[in-house]
């Protein structure tokens, strides 16, 4: 119920809303390592609460959209040492962050490389992963 305060200020009613979402390993890693405003030290990555809080901050502040896919691709490239540039995080840091994602969220890196990031040739596969 919204009310008017004693000093004639309007105070809207507020409710807590919980939202569920499904994220992949790469999306979670990207949120923790490339979302603006999220800067975790290796020590903070060892703290499950810091990891959860930082992930929540990344999702709340950035939302889920096209940036999520971009950050996921960057995170996988950095994890596998394929992100060029002087500002790319080290593979050692990315391994610590990846371990945190696995530990806290139960997600693991898919050992299958993303074709458009790590391969120059395309291969058709059937519905069960067999050659088409």
Automatic annotation (TrEMBL):
Source organism's superkingdom? Answer: Bacteria
Protein known as: Uncharacterized protein
């Amino acid at each position: 119920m919204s009310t008017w305060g004693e000093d004639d200020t309007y105070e809207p009613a507020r409710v807590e809303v919980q939202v569920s979402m499904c994220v992949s390993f790469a999306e979670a890693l990207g949120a923790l390592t490339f979302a603006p405003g999220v800067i975790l030290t290796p020590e903070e990555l060892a703290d499950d609460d810091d990891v959860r809080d930082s992930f929540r901050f990344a999702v709340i502040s950035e939302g889920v959209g096209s940036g999520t896919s971009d950050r996921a691709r960057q995170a996988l490239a950095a994890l596998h040492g394929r992100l060029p540039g002087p500002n790319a995080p080290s593979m050692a840091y990315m391994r610590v962050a990846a371990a945190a994602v696995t530990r806290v969220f139960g997600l693991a890196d898919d050992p299958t490389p993303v074709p458009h990031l790590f391969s120059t040739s395309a291969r058709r596969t059937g519905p069960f992963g067999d050659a088409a």
